[in-house]
């Protein structure tokens, strides 16, 4: 009797291990952001090479997520998460080891940075495919765990970047690379030994009788097109990322330099946005029970508040005013990622999660550089205030246009309700697997 009860009870160890791996990965990424440019600059003494290293390291993000998503669904999220973190850790470890022993030519350094991003990127989609099963095993709420899970990148950046700076100042940039490698390797070990999630049946079958790599990629695209709620959310995020990613890397630095004539103010602005985002992300879990229970209103409301707050910068408040606005922008935007990932985990079939998370992430990333480029051109053409106002107004126009989209109303259908707005993607099995209900997992 005791054994049966213990077996049937919630298992929280896999969930804790997966969350810990996610936070270690986020902390490692923050160290990478600080360490890699300083390491390249220290070893080469060339700012041009440092810039090239940053470009080479970021380039695979455009395609590695989509390609990695297919591999996740084919070989399983747990296996890809472990292999991705393991190989990324080894590649990062090779950089300081080679530099200290045989030497590290610039082409080899760039190749290692490129390969590190290629192999590390699929881990994001892989861990997302593991999240729902371990949440169900732990008896937890999707919204609550997603708020903790999605807070990791923001907390990692706010806490990890300053710690990386202190570590590098005290011990040198090579130590930062070793710490970065260690975070990958520990994350791989946690998932390998503490997250015993059974791989989807279809991921094993795809190796022998599936439609092939390109066919599997098309299946992911087909789901995004034919499942209206996923397609609508993806389109919404692509547009908002175009607008969002001009704010932090462009508008805020120009505002600090040209309006306030203080480069130090930028640090306060970025810190306020990051801390606000952490607060907003953590608050979504409890707030999703009542205040933010309607997801569609939460989506529109958060973006409307962000738009109005950014519009207020048109009146050029002082440093304190901008810092407060940045904090509130972070709080308002915090609930969005955990809410959207909750909807996707509820709606996307288990055997397609890797592809869908990889593809939607890649789509979102492609619009961000275009937003920064467009904003920079507009600022050069007409100054800062008008582009900031226009970008904020586009938020409100987007909300007005999409307010009546019936597909976004499906965001509020909870698990257990029949999925009425979807079509079966080509070459997939429409019947539920044994032991599963009619709804997708």
From TrEMBL:
Pfam families: MFS_1 (PF07690)
Compartments where located: Cell membrane
Residues making up the signal peptide according to the UniProt record: none
Region Disordered, annotated ranges: 411-441
Residue ranges, compositional bias (Basic and acidic residues): 411-426
Transmembrane segments: 15-40, 52-72, 79-98, 104-125, 155-175, 181-199, 220-243, 263-285, 297-315, 321-344, 356-378, 384-405
Keywords from the UniProt entry: Cell membrane, Membrane, Transmembrane, Transmembrane helix
Membrane topology: Multi-pass membrane protein
Domain (Major facilitator superfamily (MFS) profile) ranges: 230-441
InterPro entries for the chain: MFS (IPR011701), MFS_dom (IPR020846), MFS_trans_sf (IPR036259)
Protein name (database record): MFS transporter
Gene source species: Streptomyces amakusaensis
């Amino acid at each position: 009797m005791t054994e049966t009860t213990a077996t049937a009870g919630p298992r929280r160890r896999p969930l804790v291990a997966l969350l810990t791996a996610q936070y270690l990965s986020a902390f490692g990424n923050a160290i990478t952001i600080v360490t890699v440019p300083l390491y390249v600059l220290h070893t080469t003494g060339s700012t041009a090479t440092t810039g090239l290293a940053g470009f080479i390291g970021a380039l695979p993000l455009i395609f590695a997520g989509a390609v990695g998503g297919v591999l996740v669904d084919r070989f399983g999220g747990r296996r890809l998460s472990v292999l991705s973190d393991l190989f990324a850790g080894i590649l990062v470890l090779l950089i300081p080891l080679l530099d200290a022993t045989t030497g590290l030519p610039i082409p080899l350094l760039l190749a290692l940075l490129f390969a590190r991003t290629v192999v590390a990127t699929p881990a994001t989609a892989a861990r997302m495919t593991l999240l729902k099963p371990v949440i169900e095993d732990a008896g937890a709420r999707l919204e609550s765990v997603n708020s903790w899970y999605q807070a990791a990148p923001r907390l990692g950046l706010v806490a990890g970047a300053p710690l990386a700076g202190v570590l590098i100042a005290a011990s040198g940039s090579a130590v930062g690379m070793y710490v970065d490698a260690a975070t990958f390797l520990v994350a791989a070990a946690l998932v390998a030994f503490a997250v015993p999630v059974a791989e989807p049946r279809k991921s094993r079958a795809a190796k022998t009788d599936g439609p092939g790599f390109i066919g599997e990629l098309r299946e992911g695209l087909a789901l995004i097109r034919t499942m209206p709620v996923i397609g609508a959310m993806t389109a919404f995020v692509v547009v908002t990322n175009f607008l969002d990613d001009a704010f932090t890397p462009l508008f805020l630095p120009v505002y600090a330099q040209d309006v306030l004539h203080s480069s130090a103010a930028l640090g306060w602005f970025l810190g306020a946005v990051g801390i606000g985002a952490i607060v907003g992300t953590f608050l979504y879990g409890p707030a999703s029970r009542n205040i933010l229970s309607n997801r569609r209103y939460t989506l529109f409301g958060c973006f409307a508040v962000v738009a109005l707050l950014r519009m207020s910068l048109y009146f050029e408040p002082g440093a304190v005013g901008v810092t407060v606005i940045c904090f509130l922008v972070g709080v308002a935007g915090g609930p969005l990622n955990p809410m959207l990932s909750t909807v996707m985990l509820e709606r996307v079939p288990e055997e397609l999660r890797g592809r869908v998370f990889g593809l939607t992430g890649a789509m979102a990333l492609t619009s961000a550089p275009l937003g920064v480029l467009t904003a920079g051109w507009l600022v050069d053409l007409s100054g800062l205030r008008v582009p900031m106002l226009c970008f904020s107004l586009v938020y409100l126009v987007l909300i007005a246009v999409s307010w009546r989209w019936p597909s976004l109303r499906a965001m509020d259908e909870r698990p257990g309700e029949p999925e009425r707005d979807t079509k079966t993607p080509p070459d997939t099995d429409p019947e539920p697997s044994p032991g599963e209900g009619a709804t997708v997992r």
